[in-house]
Amino acid sequence: MLLKNCHNYHDFRKLAKRRLPGPIFNYIDGGADDEVTMRRNSESFQSCDLIPNVLTGVKDIDLSVDVMGQKLALPVYLSPTALQRLFHHQGERATAGAAEKFGTMFGVSSLGTVSMEEIARQYDTPQVYQFYFHKDRGLNRAMMERAKESNISVMMLTVDSITGGNRERDLRTGFAIPFRLNLKGLWQFATRPMWGINYLTHEKFSLPQLDAHIDMGGGASSIGDYFTNMLDPSMNWKDVEEMVKFWDGQFCLKGIMSVDDAKRAVDIGCTGIVISNHGGRQLDGSRSSFDHLAEIVDAVGDKIDVVFDSGVQRGTHVLKALALGAKAVGLGRYYLFALAAAGQKGVERAMQLMVAEIERDMRLMGCSKISDLNREHVRFR
Q: Which of the following is catalytic: 88, 89, 134, 278?
């Protein structure tokens, strides 16, 4: 299977599965517990139908949006995701390069494998820094100060991950950082020799956002241990309000899933929220992001930028979220499988396909700009 033969999310997923060792593929592909929420995230779009208008004159299509103080050429952005150099040796460099080429926003994770400083130096694209709230308040402040010095555009605090989700696929394969593989997992690595060659012949794997603060490589710590031992489950609204004041700029909460929490985010001065259930990787059985989007937009959409992610695989999914009032839509697994398949070329092809779908669908909907989309364009079954 060649990259040129990938035409949608499912094709990229198939190619990634062929190229990645099983434990790493399943780390991307899996969700929490029975993966009910993960599946529902994409299935929820099927209960919403688009209502097109015709004869509206849509020769030129403008896909640009303004969100959290950023002017983006597209209504989609590349959400921050962890461990990208495990999926392809180019890692975040490939993702940031593709975001720059398409004029959209890129997110770097606290668990990213390329430093925020390098991304800021090398790529001219609005950068989101996603971080977790640690028990060490000094570490939290140090990370924000470092982001300020790197001229990060948007600070994004993940609020639905005060402990790690129960990802049973990883338990079955023994996936962890550092690797603690069982025999089945080791065999999967042995059958993907090109991945191993690339992993060993490029720079040593590291987590540069955390290396100065946490020893992740000595065998005593793992990603699971990081979530269990380093993150602070006592984080509360007062803590976040202090961070918002300290940052004094675009501040977004990722993982909002209730109207009450959305209102609290407005009250403490946040400029954006991401309606997200972490791709179904945290609390299984929680509602899909799309099912809950309209209710939150109706409550706070005129006071704060409402962004949306989880389960997006098609341009029509993006249009449905925008029609319900989302200001922009985050892509996660959609670009990660493309990254795993072919590095930056893969991410760029995935983005080309997504842009083509959105432009075509906008024409078919009779809309020439994103602001034309509204509730009259959708009906729920």
A: 278
